[in-house]
Amino acid sequence: MKHFLVVAIPPYGHLIPLLELARRLAPFHRVTVAVSQGEVPEITRRGLVSQTDSFALFGIEDGYALLDHEKDSFDVVLKKVHALAVPGADALFRAMPIQQAITDTRLHEAPRQGTVTVLDPVDVVIADLFLAAALPVLRERGVPFHLFNAASCNLIYALLHVSEDTPTTEGKRSTFREPFDATGPLKPMPAIQKALWLARRKVVALSEGLIANSAFELEPRVIQALRQHPDMAGRSLHCVGPLFSWGLRESSAEVAKIRAWLDRQPSQSVIYVSFGTMFAPTTEDLQEIVEALKGTGRPFIWSLRSTEHNRLPEHIRGELVEPPDWSDVKGLILEWVPQNLVLQHPSISVFVSHCGWNSTMESVASGVPVIAWPMGVDQRMNALDLVEKGMAVLLEGTSVTTRITVPQDKLREIIDQVAGAGLPEGTANSFREAAETWKEKFRVATSLNGSSHEALLGLVRLYQ
């Protein structure tokens, strides 16, 4: 039995799948999850870990304790990750005891409440790809490490095609509008992104391989191509997704209240809306969305950051935002929603989503049709994949670089379309049928002898 150190970054789209990976590795090896100390109390509050988990938490004193990244934009979060999380991980990698040098015991200060120290020597490291700049020291110390990719395999495949010859553009943000096609050159990208991707590609060459939060059934063509890429020669690829808990682990009073509200709604009637934690629609879009939701006459639940609540019309805030009495409320706007619980509930009809990778996989695994509202990074690419699978409709022009306001009438019409409203009696909803088909494929992938289950066992066996 080896000791795995799993090192995450604070954004929940990266942290949650790594926590689930640790949970799945724990029956086979000893596992410690290292994350910014400032996240440890919130991880517990949100029910992301429980007393039944057999892995340990280690808080990295990297400065994130003083910051609230949920109030920041995507670009600001990335800057903080590189300014704080990367140096923090580097310090940990240099100080932690390892099997090859057990006398190296320079550890952090005594742990604070909610953390445990990495007392035992570390055998293997699994680290988020965003920590690539801190990882070469592991190679120097002789510690094997695997890179964890929290996004699609399509995105990592594109990364492995970045070279010194890749053209650049002005600007700081790149939006991946189409799935990557290796038969042609990469499209121009911002110079800062090119530099980051080149550095990450070089670290792949130092690693034992990649662990992906994906499943072969979801991206068969690109996963096959990724395995055959020259950079992956002699390296393993373990597609172990989807990495989230299939059970309803949450047990707080807040979660119980949400579950009770969902239980009161008719089957396949509720519209669920969430744009993640790092992107937000414009003020105009927020107003159009809420009017569209009310105009459908359907119950809805909207997960919206508290920092965005003041941009809603005053009468909406008083009526729908965190109402004190939920008994007769048809719509809810909440600061936080346990997304996996909500999507798996039988009352959910449609998911209005930004199509971040975690949300994309959760919608597939839950069999819920999607109205895709991508805003940046790889979200449009993920949305197009759902459209190709027949379980989504894509709203055009919603990117942060275009900012076309979606009229409430159009959004309401698309909600009705994806929900199957107005279909002749006996006619099946094609979006729901497609979503259910993909749900079953994901269930098989994660079941005993499924592709994701076998990929996890392959990783486990490397160190037995």
TrEMBL record:
It is found in: Membrane. Its EC number is 2.4.1.17. Its main location: membrane. This is UDP-glucuronosyltransferase. GO terms for cellular component: membrane. It comes from Hypsibius exemplaris. It is an enzyme of class 2 (transferase). Gene3D superfamilies: Glycogen Phosphorylase B. PANTHER family: GLYCOSYLTRANSFERASE. It catalyses: glucuronate acceptor + UDP-alpha-D-glucuronate = acceptor beta-D-glucuronoside + UDP + H(+). It holds the Pfam family UDPGT. It is a single-pass membrane protein. InterPro entries: UDP-glycosyltransf_plant, UDP_glucos_trans, UDP_glycos_trans_CS.
